[in-house]
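User: Fold this one for me? It's Tryptophan synthase beta chain-like PALP domain-containing protein.
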Amino acid sequence: DIILPLGGNNPAGVLGQVSGALELAEQVERGEVLDPKRLYLPVGSGCTVSGLIIGVALAKHLGMKAFQEPGFSIQAVPVHEALAWLQKKFGVSTLPISRWLPLTVRHSVESTCAALVQLGGPDLLALSLSVMRDHLEFRTDSAVVGTYGGHSPDSRAAASAFESSGSVEGVSAPDMAQPLWLCGHFAAKAWAIMLQDLEAQVVDGRKCVFWMTKSAVQPLGGRDEWATLKDMPHVVREWADGGKAESALRVGRVDTREGSPSDYRHLMRPLQ
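Assistant: Here's what I get for Tryptophan synthase beta chain-like PALP domain-containing protein.
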């Protein structure tokens, strides 16, 4: 059996994000992209941001010429109001005592670094904690974070701005040229913070990376996901039905009472 924790936050999931950070470092070294000044991403379980921290540490350990911009930072935007409040008041996600608290960045970084050593990799704990201390910044503006599960006013405005005038350029794969999925409960909140910084001209837009944690391609497997959802407990179906579909570019909805799979499957791609 495969156990998938909240947000995929276990060492295997975090190491997947480490590889993503290394891929970006390789692109920087090849001159394909500029060395980023800021990475922007939403934070839920902490899996992605923990992987980026370790990935930056590994790039430094390997002597790669990436993540060397003066003032380089990882801009982390909590998507849950409770997480944002706890981080703003107490810095809970990075406190030393949080090494014992699952779903905090400190716990994820330490447990993944330990797993990496067990797999025969380098010991990156000290360097990763240094990256976490010196290059990680949480953005906890309540107007952006809002309430978990949907748009805040700021994230809705930012997503609408992209849908009305934004585009994805410089890619050759047709699937990757699909509109970004700026979902209200997650990605759009980090997008809003990045737009605020760009509008305030606090960072060069050419050196910003929006770390998209929602795939442009939604996979459709061999199992009937609609039948599975319909068999779920009432509280789960009610939660699914209550989600608002606001995207004008990715039009779809889930309604287990009166809807059908055709309401959303056009946004999915069958797995080969």
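One thing worth pointing out: The first helix runs from residue 11 to 29.
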